[in-house]
Amino acid sequence: MLTPERMHQINVLVFETEVDAVAEAIVRMGLLHMVQMDEQEAWAGELKGYEAGKLRAGIDRLAVRISALMKDLGIRALPVSPSDEKLREVTTGDLTGMDDEISSLESSVKEAKGRRKELTERLERLRGIFNEVSPLASLGFPAQKTPYSFLEIHYGRVRSSNLTMIKQRTDQLAAVVLTLAHQGEDDVVLVIGLKADRLKLKRILREATFEEIEISDEARKESAGVTGELESKIADIQDQVEEIDGELAELREKNSELLTGYHRSLQVAQLYLKVKGYLKRTRKTCVFSGWLPSDRKELVEREILRAADGKAIIETVPPEEITGVKSGRVKVPVLLKHPGFFKPFGMLVASYGLPEYSFIDPTFFVAISFLIMFGMMFGDIGHGVVLAVIGWLLGFKSGRRNEAVGLIGKLVFYCGLSSIVFGVLFGSVFGLEDLIPQVWLKPMHDVLYFFKIAVYFGIAMISLGIVFNVINAIRARDVKAVLFDHAGVLSAIIYWGGIGAVSIFLSNRPVPLMLIIFAVCVPLIILFLREPIAAIIGHRRMVFEKGVMSYLMETVIEAIEILTGYLANTVSFIRVAAFSLAHVGLFIAVFSLVDMVKGKSGGAIYSALILILGNAVIIALEGLVVTIQAIRLEYYEFFGKFFMGGGKAYDPIGLEGVPDRNE
To answer: Which residue of 79, 141, 275, 431 pairs with 587 in a disulfide if CB–CB is 3.0 to 4.6 A?
Structure first.
């Protein structure tokens, strides 16, 4: 748990005839982090890769189309399980058959959704007209120059034989044609449409020899019928929309199993091709390479041999024996495995970056230090219980939930428990300091002592970071970094010597001269001479490329940065105590407001509201601020000493948790 999982590289040679079976075994296991061999070995660059350009392009295009169809029909994608026996390689012939069925279904869905979209747009326009006309229908329409914001109204006479043509051609528009009277061979009609369709309406009416007339009182009396006509049209379109929805539901019901099956098959096919993309080919064989956890190498070897019917040559090599790894050219993928309790803190570490394969995984120490800092800054039994309940609901309550939300919930739960523990130590319950006795101290009553505790906690954190940096440098066989790095042995001696000198001085005792000389001055002198010393150790000639003075100035500046940096890092931990005092101070403000209102009329109600709202604000606001401050101290003051990041995540190819690439 203190370092990433141990890995082994696996190199496999199989006959080309066994590639499909081996690829299927790799995908089902989901344990092999595959790598391009030509990036590992120069000779592999002369071998040909596996060619599947047309097949891959066809699979990718079809997968996109199927995902779009499933989205249109509201069909949820099903996960792919390694135990699914129906999973197999997808051939070009399979793609042709899928394409024919998908094309037919796409046509049906597209046609239905197109009709639905057109009807929906007409429905929205008619509803807009209805909403504007209905309030004034009882008053009758005004004269032809209507003040309505978006309506076009025409009142006039047209031949009865042309009326049908007007109704048919305006049926595709958001328009109403209302017959008011019959006069021989003519009909008196009222046409209402949108100003946006003004030119279309005028052209239709002109072709029908429509004759505009002044709106009469009779027309005004009949205008209320417009709303009835609109309601009838709206109801008719709604029925058509519901009918189309029924068609789509029927298509979903009939094709759900087909589409999800195709979708899963294509996901697997994409993974098979991804595996084959790492292959290098000779005339009759294929070779590939990858990384896997050391404790699973026997399983992987056994499954590959079984899939290849024993016709495979397998070699597993530890990283220490690989030339590219030793030279730093090849990176070993990093897998961080943590017990359940530490997973939320692993998320915090991963947010900063992944450690190199040979470096220390700080998750265990982050979990302990983060909870200590959070509890010290937010120590209150009542608030801790609230956080723990919220965290339990998010992180532990049964039911489906997003993994990230679950981890955040667990983190909140653990922080709540830490708050409860420190609340007991501080004797604080919802800000009430006198309700229970403290086990340790009252932050507001022991300010200087509490600040001292925070500083010494910071010294311990910084010292641990230095130790980790030295260990990492030793594991990387970097002697120069061990001695001269900003968090190397010499910097550590200067830091600890300075801490010792300050502690002795503050205790009113004389600081030993030997301590200053050997713990501060001598290491600083060695830092000044690090390049000449490194040249002597490396048996090379010392060359000052920018001149001796430039070297001296750079060394002086670096020494000052080390001294001021460590001082700032140490002082920064004072915020742990400061935020604890701020937590108490906020409660003092809340209780002061309660004292101001409790003697007034309705004071009991106002006091209760202030207490409830005050606690809610403190939990939400200060809880967030304290979390940010704890993370900041971890990242900048602790990680800054040793954590370089740059690790490459272990990313095996497999069926477990295969995402929909088109989402």
So the answer is: 431
Cβ(18)–Cβ(308) below 8 Å? yes
Quote the DSSP letter at residue 144.
S
> How far, in Å, CA of 380 to CA of 388, rounded?
12
Own/partner long-range contacts of 19-23 (Cβ < 8 Å, ≥24 apart): 19/50, 19/276, 19/279, 19/286, 20/89, 20/272, 21/307, 21/308, 21/309, 22/304, 22/307, 22/308, 22/312, 23/89, 23/272, 23/275, 23/276
Q: What is the reported pTM?
A: 0.76
Q: CA–CA separation, 148 vs 133, rounded Å? A: 9
The residues of the chain scoring below 70 in pLDDT are: 1, 81-89, 91-92, 128-149, 214-227, 398-401, 544-545, 656-663
Beta-ladder partners of 313: 13
Ramachandran region, residue 300 (left: φ > 0; alpha: ψ -120 to 50; beta: rest): alpha
- Compute the distance between CA of residue 99 and CA of residue 93 in angstroms, rounded to an integer: 10
- pLDDT tens across 385-436, in order? 999 999 999 988 755 567 888 899 999 999 999 999 999 999 999 988 888 9
Length of the chain: 663
The count of C-alpha atoms lying within 13 angstroms of the C-alpha of 443, restricted to the half-sphere facing its C-beta, is 27
What would the pLDDT profile of 573-587 be if each residue is shown by its tens digit?
Answer: 999 999 999 988 888
* Identity of the residue numbered 579: F
For the CA atoms of the chain, what is the radius of gyration? Answer: 38
- What the block records as the tokens of 139 is 């008053």
Interaxial angle between packed helices 623-632 and 574-597, expressed in degrees from 0 to 180 and rounded to the nearest 10: 170
Sequence-distant (≥ 6) Cβ neighbours of residue 484 within 8 angstroms? 490, 527, 530, 534
Any idea which residue has 């050219």 for tokens? 329
Q: From CA 13, how far away is CA 576, in angstroms rounded?
A: 58
Sequence spans of domains, the chain: 141-223, 340-642
Could you name the CATH architecture of 141-223? 2-Layer Sandwich (3.30)
Instruction: Confirm if 8 and 346 have CB atoms less than 8 A apart.
Output: no
650 near 334, Cβ under 8 Å?
A: yes
Cβ atoms 174, 129 nearer than 8 A:
yes
Give the DSSP H/E element, type plus range, for residue 176.
strand 176-183
Spatial contact of 160 and 179, defined as CB atoms under 8 Å apart: no
Non-local CB neighbours of 573 within 8 Å, separated by 6+ positions: 454, 455, 457, 458, 459, 461, 633, 637
Burial of 50 (0-12, 13-18, 19+ CB in 10 A): middle
Residues sharing a CB contact under 8 Å with residue 21, sequence separation 6 or more, in sequence order: 307, 308, 309
Q: What sign results for the dihedral spanned by CA atoms 103, 106, 112, 118?
A: negative
- The strand ranges marked E within 441-507 are none
The encoded tokens of residue 329 equal 């050219």
